Amino acid sequence: MEVEVVRFNKISIGSMETIIVKKFSDTEEANNYYTNWKCDESNNDNILILGKQWNETDKTEIKITDDYKYLYTYSVNLWDLEYDDMTHSHNFEIYAK
């Protein structure tokens, strides 16, 4: 199993860059890393992160106010290397004041 994290700006073609590639021999460990991954921006009060509640039951939509500007998106991908297949993926959109 492998967890891959890429960052891109959805407005800028060609902006995708790989941030993390981490291989795991244990499936449970890979799933745990994937499920609990947090971006560096997660502890910043001036940052709004859409998608961080992806694994919670409360799916209340968060409204983006005009004082926030889109920066980029992280895509966190869980790969099954044996079958060369992406098994799970979720995105975090990052906005700053």
Overview of this structure, please?
- The protein is mainly β and 97 residues long.
- 10% of the residues lie in helices and 43% in strands.
- It has a five-stranded antiparallel sheet.
- Strand 1 (2-8) and strand 2 (17-23) form a beta hairpin.
- The protein starts with a strand and ends with a strand.
- The model has no long low-confidence stretch (mean pLDDT 92).
Which SSEs are present, and which pair or pack?
Layout: E1 2-8, E2 17-23, H1 27-36, E3 47-50, E4 69-80, E5 85-96
Antiparallel strand pairs: 1-2, 1-4, 3-5, 4-5
- The total count of strands amounts to 5
Helicity range of the residues? 10-25%
Number of helices: 1
Mean pLDDT level = 92
- Give the DSSP E fraction (strand runs of 2 or more residues): 35-45%
Terminal CA distance reads 36 Å
Q: Low-confidence spans: pLDDT under 50, at least 5 residues?
A: none
Biggest sheet strand line-up: 2-1-4-5-3
Sheet with the most strands, sense and barrel status: 5 strands, antiparallel
Radius of gyration, rounded? 14 Å
Which secondary-structure class do the elements indicate?
A: mainly beta
Order of helices and strands: EEHEEE
**What is the chains' assembly state?**
single chain
**What is the 3D shape?**
globular
Question: What tags apply to this protein structure?
Answer:
97 residues; 5-stranded antiparallel β-sheet
